[in-house]
UniProtKB/TrEMBL annotation:
GO biological process: vacuolar transport
Native species: Coccidioides immitis RMSCC 3703
Highest taxon listed in the record's lineage: Eukaryota
UniProt-recorded name of the protein: Charged multivesicular body protein 2a
InterPro entries with a match to the protein in the record: Snf7_fam (IPR005024)
Disordered, as annotated region: 119-141
Ranges annotated as biased composition (Basic and acidic residues): 132-141
A family per Pfam: Snf7
PANTHER family (alphabetical): CHARGED MULTIVESICULAR BODY PROTEIN (PTHR10476)
Amino acid sequence: MRTQLQAISLRIQTVRSNEQMMQSMRGATILLGSMNRQMNLPALQRIVMEFERENEIMDQRQEMMDDAIDEATGLDDEEEGEEIVKEVLDEIGVDLGQALGETPTGLQTTGIQEGRIAQAVGGGGTAEDDDLQARLDSLRR
């Protein structure tokens, strides 16, 4: 009996919650309807188009100002980039004008000689190593 009363109480509470939600939705619907009636869609579209046009004009003027400043400073984009790279390299202490050491030229002209085979040099190996070396030598002949 007690559990049945609790179940009925929960059901009544659920119905009240649903009623409150329905009232809130009714109020929101009335509010949205009045807003839609007050909204002048053609005027809103006209305002958006005017905003876009003014925004484009502002972008064009900004671009003109940037070009004028670039011309006044006498630097183009490439020179600006080189100047920035130079400043960064100076900050980290890299000097591109520093002379590089001489590079060896003889290494590039010497070719690989055919017929020479690298041999291991060093202390004596174990008997197993000697046996493997002897087998390798016999294969090369």
